[in-house]
Amino acid sequence: MGKYERSEELEKLAAKVIAENEIFSHLSSDDCRIAFQECESTKTNSGKIVYADTERVKDKLKAFLPYDFIITFYADGMELSVEMKERLMYHELKHVGFEPEEKKFSIMWYTFSDTIFIGTKIVCQNVLQTILRNVLSNV
Fold first, then answer.
1. Is residue 32 classed as helix, strand or coil in its secondary structure?
2. How far apart are CA 13 and CA 90, in angstroms?
3. Are 57 and 68 in contact (CB under 8 A)?
4. What does residue 84 show for φ and ψ, rounded to 5 degrees?
5. From first to last of its 139 residues, what are the pLDDT tens digits of the chain?
6. Which of 10, 49, 108, 118 could form a disulfide with 97 if both were Cys (CB 3.0 to 4.6 A apart)?
7. CB hemisphere CA count around 92 (13 angstroms)
8. pTM for this predicted structure
């Protein structure tokens, strides 16, 4: 398990993405508290790289954590370009849903077509980074 640290860089990035995208207007209120952290370790799931994830803070932990959600960028996510981090943050923020009739926030899952936009670019960039690392390590 890696070391986790609060990330001001990710907080600023999220604020930018929220401000630039009207679909996140529900996140600009004080009613939704999101913590941002980075992890120095990599993460995989079923052999695939996990760049970041979003999780809801469980109710029993809210007495200790004053947040509703935690967005974590793992080492591979932190190595992405600024543009790709912005796309990844957009993707993670889309997981924070709001149900207006119940005035409640929840984790939202969405379709493959919504994720292909970011996924294809990250996979391509990851492949290029891996190729470069391999080439440079053999020089």
1. coil
2. 9
3. yes
4. -70, -35
5. 789 999 999 999 999 999 999 999 889 877 889 999 999 999 998 888 999 999 999 989 989 999 999 999 999 999 999 999 999 999 999 999 888 788 788 888 765 445 444 555 555 555 555 666 666 666 5
6. 108
7. 30
8. 0.79
Q: Residue type for 137, please?
A: S
Tokens 């990330």: give the residue. 7
